[in-house]
Amino acid sequence: MSSYQAPITDMTFNLFDVWQLDQYWQTNGQLQDLIEADTAKAILEEAAKICEQQIAPYSADADQRGAQLTDGKVSLPTHYYTAYQSLVEGGWTSLSGDPQYGGMGMPKALSMMVDEMLCSSDIAFSLYPGLTAGACVALLQHADDTTKQTYLPKLYSGEWSGTMCLTESHAGSDLGIMRTTAKPNADGSYALNGSKIFITAGEHELTSNIIHLVLAKLPDAPAGSRGISLFLVPKYLLDANGGAGVRNGVSVGSIEHKMGINGSATCVLNFDDAKGFLIGEPHRGLSCMFTMMNYERLSMGSQGLGAAERAYQNALAYAKDRLQGRITESDANKAEPIIGHPDVQRMLLNIKAMNEAGRTFATWVAALLDKSKYDNCVVSGQRANLLTPIAKAFMTDQGFDACVSAQQVFGGHGYVKEWGMEQLVRDVRIAQIYEGTNGIQAADFMLRKVAADKGTVLFSLLDDIADELIEKPHVSAAPLTKAVTDLRAITTQLLQKENVVLAGAACDFLALVSYILYGYMWYKNLMALDTSKHSSSFIDAKTHTANWFFSRILPRATGINATLNNDSVMLYNLAHENY
Amino acid sequence: MSSYQAPITDMTFNLFDVWQLDQYWQTNGQLQDLIEADTAKAILEEAAKICEQQIAPYSADADQRGAQLTDGKVSLPTHYYTAYQSLVEGGWTSLSGDPQYGGMGMPKALSMMVDEMLCSSDIAFSLYPGLTAGACVALLQHADDTTKQTYLPKLYSGEWSGTMCLTESHAGSDLGIMRTTAKPNADGSYALNGSKIFITAGEHELTSNIIHLVLAKLPDAPAGSRGISLFLVPKYLLDANGGAGVRNGVSVGSIEHKMGINGSATCVLNFDDAKGFLIGEPHRGLSCMFTMMNYERLSMGSQGLGAAERAYQNALAYAKDRLQGRITESDANKAEPIIGHPDVQRMLLNIKAMNEAGRTFATWVAALLDKSKYDNCVVSGQRANLLTPIAKAFMTDQGFDACVSAQQVFGGHGYVKEWGMEQLVRDVRIAQIYEGTNGIQAADFMLRKVAADKGTVLFSLLDDIADELIEKPHVSAAPLTKAVTDLRAITTQLLQKENVVLAGAACDFLALVSYILYGYMWYKNLMALDTSKHSSSFIDAKTHTANWFFSRILPRATGINATLNNDSVMLYNLAHENY
């Protein structure tokens, strides 16, 4: 059984010392009355209690029992019901909700950290409140006020939950070819028919109603992705009092048997003349859904980081406890803790360096989103947009690698179920795949976020970083300056190449930018250290880990750079039949 | 369900065109009457039939049912019994056995390929004949002739099977601290007491007897690993006719529940005054066991390659079949096969390039072992020794990465069980862990195989490669020359550093050497292409994949080189309590 303790010290270090968000909150008219440093810390501490005590200890049990479908009803691991009730009673499901509809209105930089804790505790469980929060974001932005008044308070309170229904069996990420239809009813509603697959939290009894957000095509829809509309389809149609009334025409066909996140009910949902309500403009459903998906994509990063944090904690404890081999002792019968082995230190430091940079990165992106939302700051919005695919793809790729490395620290014990390490690997693997595979994220990053504006937003960010490194240099971060310069050069070079090369280079390019931004995160960590505020052991660990990053991880950028340098159209012309 | 077809064309290309082993076999006195090209090809074709028809189609079923322990007996997936019987009847269990004791005496280069097929079909199943083959190697080399006469024929025939019993719960890879004892009996045998864990194929009913090779300490044993002796402990003691007689004092305590290879019974074995027979000299058991472990380590590489080959085949088929997105078509409702996407090509080519280089590498190492064994060729032996940890660690690391990438090609379908991709990931993961973790392999490589002789064997190999590249250059392989030069430089530099740095650098160094040797493998592939023998599509695929390797994979070496360049003692001095 793997244990978990929320990394509150590092979280508050990021919030208050690295990014000084308490100071930002005080300058903002909407946030200054809602949140300040002590409240934020108290919120993290309370969230930690639920996660550490009510969710994390039972994640292995949830994996073993899984979600079960019987007679059209999905049952979940028993403790999910009590843990979810605790979230509801503590108001946790409304954390990031709009205060106008009963939400707590907390900034993303804070709610992201609660997301991380939930994901460390049990990714499968985290999806139930997570999907609801995403659905709320889409409704808040695109629904009319009556719809918001009707649905948001009960979604925020956790009484109801939400889903997003995009995928069809023949149409994964290619939504333009979907077949689900929506025909107008006489009363202004729509009749939906079709079948959706991979619907997370699609059916369960955690909540008294489930509000599905469904993509479908109107009869007059133009072809392709410009012909998709968004509909709200409740599991139970509302009665006269706005409560859950008669059952709607949506039912679960089956649930998937998966590699991991077994506690999450991944459903095939069938819509048979299901009554739905149009959200936003006709044929504009995809852009409405992307609002939700972008929110989810950030939360995906938390899944990677959350699993990796728990994996690290357990690998570290095991490395200190497990006696194998002699490093300093000469007594042939006396073994020492494996943390003494340089190769074990290598694995631990790789994980630690990437996790802590990842947490700083996630806080950064969340703060950019907050500044975009609360201050209408254009630059922050552009940068959040640029960095979102990195938060999704790089953080989940690194999260997976971290879990695999942490499992490796356990040797054979990492492969048996009882230690919980193999579950972390199985669970976190999904985060690289769903909500747009990491390959799709990379294409989005390379083509839409960088190539489309000829690198303007990226170059502006790199300029600011380069300036900051000149104005306030840090000796340990010296290699970063050259890495930023090299990145500018290879980006300029890539932007002159053909689209097919950009698409083929996308994953490597995303990784290259990410490593350099993680270097910037370590620079920010170093600059935030303060002997008057932080313990010497904290400062020692941060300094050492930063050095590790700059010496042993950042040089990977050199290899990726060399790879991208060689890219050409010729590499993508092997006839498909010759593979 | 994932399918599988043995890659016989690439196998024979490696045997006969790349390494021209048919010519070597004809020059060797022991091999020339046993094997030639046509026989070798027929053997591969027959092995393919069993693997493709009797093992591979049922691997998902084996995963689901798993090995089950009931009342001290282990039951296996039903088809394991019939498939194993087919192996026995076809003489496959004796493939690499010594003809003096009933083996077929096939060279390793050929039997390795059958290993690969078995591993593609079902790694868990492959372990039953695999462990037996390993036990036979240890007995052949270290047992006295009577013991060999008694046990080898029945092990080769597959009537009996073998195990290796090393690990104890407190002593994983640190065998020196083991507690299992062996006390001399009056009749010259020994009474063994203790408990071993992680014993693959430790108990089952596939065979009528199981011959355990057990490490234990004699009463007068010196401390540490120099005090370990090797014992043969049959599950059933032999009766007067040499058949399985009364039950010995060895029993299964429990079996592990694991991430994968569920069809393999991973046992806790308890020895209670179990009767054992000393193999080899007292206190020299570890070196006897290493004979077996080195054999197993090569087979580990086949596990990585085998799983990766099957993963590639299925990802390729899916990529050609799955319609998503538009690459060339402008019709918004018409999707094209995802193999048209450059990022999908990237994943497929990465896997293909590493798999085919891996197969050439495995054949090379096996051929070196053959030349060492049959010709007493010292250089071949030294090189096989040098390359064995690479075959174990790099081939399994790459095998895991390949399975993860192939799973990624499937998107969400890769995560659900029915497609079989997630099982390949779970199954192959163990190969990085057991038989000495890949970290231990890297330490062995860096410290014992390179640093201990000041790089002599490695440098001699690099000299030969460099000479060959000058004498017979190939334009596509041009980047390899510089990579070899850079490798010499960083190796020379590393060898001047402290042991702690070498130990910390070991994994990266092993990867660096491996990438460059894989580059040499692609050079050898290119040089073996012959328009008079090979189809134009085969030549096109090989040429293209080689270019991919040199352009998009070999540059990774630059990054690793830069990382190693930065290594220093300072990076390993973070106090353990500050992690």
UniProtKB/TrEMBL annotation, chains A, B:
GO terms for molecular function: flavin adenine dinucleotide binding; oxidoreductase activity, acting on the CH-CH group of donors. It comes from Arsukibacterium tuosuense. Residues 38-159 form the Acyl-CoA dehydrogenase/oxidase N-terminal domain. Belongs to the acyl-CoA dehydrogenase family. It catalyses: 3-(methylsulfanyl)propanoyl-CoA + oxidized [electron-transfer flavoprotein] + H(+) = 3-(methylsulfanyl)acryloyl-CoA + reduced [electron-transfer flavoprotein]. It comes from the Bacteria. Residues 475-569 form the Acetyl-CoA dehydrogenase-like C-terminal domain. Residues 164-273 form the Acyl-CoA oxidase/dehydrogenase middle domain. This is 3-methylmercaptopropionyl-CoA dehydrogenase. SUPFAM superfamilies: Acyl-CoA dehydrogenase C-terminal domain-like, Acyl-CoA dehydrogenase NM domain-like. Involved in the assimilation of dimethylsulphoniopropionate (DMSP), an important compound in the fixation of carbon in marine phytoplankton, by mediating the conversion of 3-(methylthio)propanoyl-CoA (MMPA-CoA) to 3-(methylthio)acryloyl-CoA (MTA-CoA). Its EC number is 1.3.99.41. Residues 284-443 form the Acyl-CoA dehydrogenase/oxidase C-terminal domain. The chain crosses the membrane at residues 500-523. It holds the Pfam family Acyl-CoA_dh_1. It is an enzyme of class 1 (oxidoreductase).
